[in-house]
Amino acid sequence: MKEYMQRAGFWSLLALVIGVQLGLGATILPSNLAPYGVWGILSFLITGSGVISLALVFAALSENSRAGGPYVYVQDAFGDRAAFVAAWSYWIISWVGTVPILVFAAGSMEMLFGGWSTSTAIIVEITILTVITLINLTGVGAGEIIFSAARVIPFVVFPFIALKYGSLKNIEIPKDISPMLALNKASLIALWGFLGIEAGTTPADTVENPNKTIPRAIIYGTFIVAALYIVNLVSVMSVVPAGALSNSLSPYATYLEYSMGGDYAKVVSVFIIIVCVGCVKSWILTSGEAAYSAAQEQMFPSSFAKRNKFASPYVGVITTSVLMGICGLMLKNNTIKEQINILIEFCSTAYLILYMICAVILGIMMWRRKIAASVMRWSLVTVGLAFCSWAICMARPRDIIGAAMIPLSGVVLGLFRRK
């Protein structure tokens, strides 16, 4: 265990925080935000500010807490029953929301190697899941820094292309939509790119000096991701006309084609595969850690409260991978785009509800004087609540209902659990 603790230091945790956020959203956001032009960029600044305030909320909550992430904050504020519902909900949305990233990774491999049948696509997804699971069974630090570096480097390099080929004149102000409506729609799209800001809080008991390491990793990681998103979004939109970008299935391939010529679809497919596989790896590990912590509190079956010789929560990791595979199979009757949209829309709303609850909890803990209060922290609570409330109000009713079904299932399951 000592060697493991040395590996799970600041850099490994920072890589985990970046890894869960820098995934599918990073590769598709330029296309999704292109129709909104200037308002798309402004919405990203608004969303980024709201997310950073939430990152600071989680940093404050983690200073005096234990492993497990959001559910332990609910337990401290509202007790064991509410904590079980929170633990169940967080575990469900963490792996369900990862399925579209896995699907997109497999789809990118199909683009790289040519078209294949549904059965081949299933085999590819299962193979990816198996390899990722085996890597995760070697612990938190295993591969996180390498995977994150491989994903971050292209996002650092790509913007330099725009210095030669880009022009801010290509970023237009759309005339067919009102500014307020454009900001509302674009902000919800941008939010998907930041989901997972709380992931660094889940493996607290396997992190060196967690009370200092976790807040630093959450804050620095979220700032890095926000900066990379903004710079890349402006770069791509400054090179590719809005019409061509909004219709592109691979915005970075289109970006390279417009700037340097040639067909870069396969090159970019490799980049997307690395980004998505690394993100899936981070999320499976996060889900396993969440299940492990809940089991230690006797909320999940005791089998989840086990670690192997590498201190990996192997039961949670394997279970999460199996459920993701089953979920992916259930969606095979839809196109890749439909599979992604089905899961993204309601998972984003579910995360917003969770983030809002955590902002409320920070206020409660300061009111009870269990966490040091300050004007800055009260401001974070206010901004976090305002941002989450606004974003939830912009969500579609079906997504709100779908998101509400997850904690409701936890309430029902909790009744049987107590019996």
Automatic annotation (TrEMBL):
Signal sequence range: none
Pfam families: AA_permease_2
Source organism, top-level taxon: Bacteria
UniProt membrane topology term: Multi-pass membrane protein
Keywords: Cell membrane, Membrane, Transmembrane, Transmembrane helix
Keyword DNA damage: no
Sequence intervals crossing the membrane: 41-61, 82-107, 113-138, 145-165, 177-197, 218-244, 264-284, 311-331, 343-363, 375-394, 400-416
Coiled-coil features, chain-numbered ranges: none
InterPro entries the UniProt entry points to: AA/rel_permease1, APC_superfamily
Record's subcellular location: Cell membrane
Entry similarity comment: Belongs to the amino acid-polyamine-organocation (APC) superfamily. Basic amino acid/polyamine antiporter (APA) (TC 2.A.3.2) family.
Protein role: Major component of the acid-resistance (AR) system allowing enteric pathogens to survive the acidic environment in the stomach. Exchanges extracellular arginine for its intracellular decarboxylation product agmatine (Agm) thereby expelling intracellular protons. Probably undergoes several conformational states in order to translocate the substrate across the membrane; keeps the substrate accessible to only 1 side of the membrane at a time by opening and closing 3 membrane-internal gates.
Record-given protein name: Arginine/agmatine antiporter
